[in-house]
Amino acid sequence: MNGLGSPLQIFVRNTSSMVLREMRSKFGEQKLSYAWALLEPLGWVLMMSAIFMAMGSHLPPVSDSFLVFFSSELVPFSAFKNTSNVVRKAIQQNKPLLFFPIIKPIDTFVSRAVLETLTQITVFTIIITIHSFVYKSRPHDDWINVIINLYLI
Question: Where in the chain are the domains?
Fold first, then answer.
């Protein structure tokens, strides 16, 4: 063991520092960037729901609401897509940090995956909450299935 702590302590310290660094670089000082993380998937869900309702489609195949159906499909897909894209670019965008001997490539991957996953879970929770307030419903079996599907990804 060296003076910096155990390898696990170093990994946790590096990862948490890089999550904060990634959060500052991704969201910065602009409050609108936090809103964009919510508005993008919410816009997709509302747009797809409006299109299918305008086409006169009947009930969706899985749920009683197009909002629930598209939330359960588009938000997890968006979470997977965004997480895989940011992790894929982790080495390229953090190359200067890798010159420090204490920073390992796995630190960049984990920090980006943690930040993006937490962001997407927060967005999904907000969408569930909005739906519950608008339709004056409580989470029931449909939402429990949606949450299970999100965590299976």
Answer: 7-152
- Percent of the chain at pLDDT > 90 equals 8
Report whether 68 contacts 142 (CB < 8 A): yes
Please determine, for residue 9, whether its predicted confidence score (pLDDT) is greater than 80: yes
Q: What is the pLDDT of residue 110?
A: 92
Residue 60, class by beta-carbon neighbours within 10 Å (0-12 exposed, 13-18 middle, 19+ buried)?
Answer: middle
Mean pLDDT over residues 106-133, rounded?
84
* pTM for the model: 0.77
CA-based Rg of the chain, rounded to a whole angstrom? Answer: 19
> Which residue pairs, CB below 8 angstroms and at least 24 apart, start in 118-125?
119/37, 120/75, 120/78, 120/79, 120/82, 120/83, 121/79, 121/150, 122/37, 123/37, 123/38, 123/41, 123/42, 123/75, 124/41, 124/71, 124/75, 124/76, 124/79, 124/150
Nearest alpha-carbon partner for 124 in 80, 59, 88, 85: 80
